[in-house]
């Protein structure tokens, strides 16, 4: 999500396009564990992408291909476009900051 965070900064209209598959989890606890393992600094700040998926969006459901049964991983297709619509910040009891960038599907033809 750090790459997405940087792409969002570079975007003039808040729209990002996935150039490869974007892997995601339907479970917040799994996303938090993943973010903790991938943080790139010692600041205790974790970035997340939250995709508000519409029933018409095409995603690939990865179960049962994951070794983690509860993961319920999905993959967003390359070429998918999502528009940023809000950012929320949360601080947990341990002092960690969690920054959530929220996206929804974006189709410029609509």
Structure notes:
By secondary structure, this protein is an alpha+beta fold. The chain is 18% helix and 38% strand. The chain is built from 2 helices and 7 strands. It has helices spanning 2-10, 28-38, and strands at residues 15-17, 22-25, 45-52, 59-61, 73-76, 81-91, 97-105. The strands form 2 sheets. Strands 1-6-7-3 form a 4-stranded mixed sheet. The longest helix has 11 residues, at 28-38. The radius of gyration is 14 Å and the shape is globular. The two termini are 27 Å apart. 14% of the residues are buried. The mean pLDDT is 76.
List the helices and strands and how they pair.
Elements: H1 2-10, E1 15-17, E2 22-25, H2 28-38, E3 45-52, E4 59-61, E5 73-76, E6 81-91, E7 97-105
Parallel strand pairs: 3-7
Antiparallel strand pairs: 1-6, 2-5, 4-5, 6-7
């Amino acid at each position: 999500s750090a790459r997405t965070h940087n792409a969002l900064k570079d975007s003039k209209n808040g729209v990002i396009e996935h150039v490869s598959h974007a892997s995601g989890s339907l479970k917040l606890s799994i996303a938090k564990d993943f973010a903790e393992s991938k943080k790139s600094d010692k600041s205790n700040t974790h970035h997340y992408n939250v995709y508000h998926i519409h029933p018409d969006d095409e995603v690939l459901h990865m179960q049962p291909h994951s070794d983690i049964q509860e993961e319920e991983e999905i993959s967003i297709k390359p070429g998918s476009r999502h528009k940023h619509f809000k950012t929320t910040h949360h601080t947990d009891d341990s002092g960690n900051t969690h920054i959530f960038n929220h996206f929804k599907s974006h189709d410029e033809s609509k």
